[in-house]
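Input.
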Amino acid sequence: MAGNEKEVVQFLFDNMNRISLGHLGLVSSIGAPSSNDGYNNISSSKDLLLVSTEDSGKKADIYINGNGVSLKQSGASFPFNRLQRANLVNVFNNIGFSNPEKKLERIDREVDNFHHGKIANRSRPWRNLFSEEDFYGLVKFLMTEGSPNLGHSTHPAHYILEAPKTILSENNIQVYSFQEYFEKYKENFFFSIRRQWIGQSSDSEHRRAIGLAKKSENQKWVYKTIGGQPNISKKTGKRWRDDVDEKDRRTVYLIFVEKT
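Output.
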């Protein structure tokens, strides 16, 4: 989620038929993806409540002039969050990668090396793991076409709209095809190794780690040894839960696609 979606949609709505955007032309209609493969026109301020960016199955956050558009905030971001090992081979196969198991082995080595302190930086250069053609296909799928759990989206994104968080204007909103977006930022993309822990104080992260660890395909990214430390919970003032014995704590890894 970009973080500035509601501000962008409000700005576009307030300036309909007054601003023109690259690839899209004069903004004459805005729509919110519906529960099927269509969309609902936004014709009043109340309709802005129809816009939701919480559904990972919808790659288009909004429709502009009938085109599905993914909204991204300018600057550093995570084009895709929480990619788990259990989904990777299926994703690679769906995209048409050759030797998907071999590619997964490379990622396994990076995760293992990070966990054991052999590499310090969790943000790994994608060129260590993929050819440019393969990485392009992977990021295109994750950003504009589908999701690892749900497959191809009924609301694909035809364009990517990038805008700052505040002080929006026609001049600082950019619209890209995916190819344009990738070419502009490909040296800023990284495969970011992220961890969470079974037993950490955060309820949501603890539960997510438990869910991930239950899947047999994720086991190579689940460690009995503790790598790093979770943040201290603002709610409890502790790093670790009292109801999980120290011997039952686990470090569980995920991959984020990061743009710096």
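The chain has six helices and 15 strands.
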